[in-house]
Amino acid sequence: MKRAAGRMTAALVGVAALLGVVLVPSAQQTEATPWSDQELAAASTVTALNVPELLPNATPACVASGLLNLAPEVKIWWKLPPAAVAAGYTVANAEYGQIVNQGLLEPILSNLLSNVSTTTSGDGYVTTISGTLLANLLGGKKTLGIRLVYPGPATPAPSPDNRWRSDWLVANAEFGALSINNKCTIGTAPSY
Question: Which CATH architecture has domain 55-151+162-189?
Fold first, then answer.
């Protein structure tokens, strides 16, 4: 009985396979087979815009000060590099930042920009950062930065501003307890 059931199953599988071969349509020729195009395409090279980074303009290039840390202040001396001046950049293209989240420099929000002032100093500028941006720094550290933003059109809100930016010119300020041994060092940090 088992043998008869096995033969019957084998016969059904064989018939199904034959029907599959017979019923499957053959490949049809399409209109695309003889088609060809003689037109050639060429790509152009795209290069990224390089926004020059700001240069320190004094020795020392930054100072952390404030009497007894009651009115802490950081001053950064900087200038536009010759390539930036030649390209038409001005102090109006400067963007100011601070470390606020996981060690990333982020632009200072407009409501805090009243604590940032920039004036001319010789062949460059001095930016003074004070007030609430430096509050509660008894014996603490603060990293502040300045960078150039390409003066082209900004992306309309609410999208983020996607203009090209230079690397940050960074001031790492350390305020000692009671303004003793305040330090400030200058460096650079990538924007992206």
Answer: Sandwich (2.60)
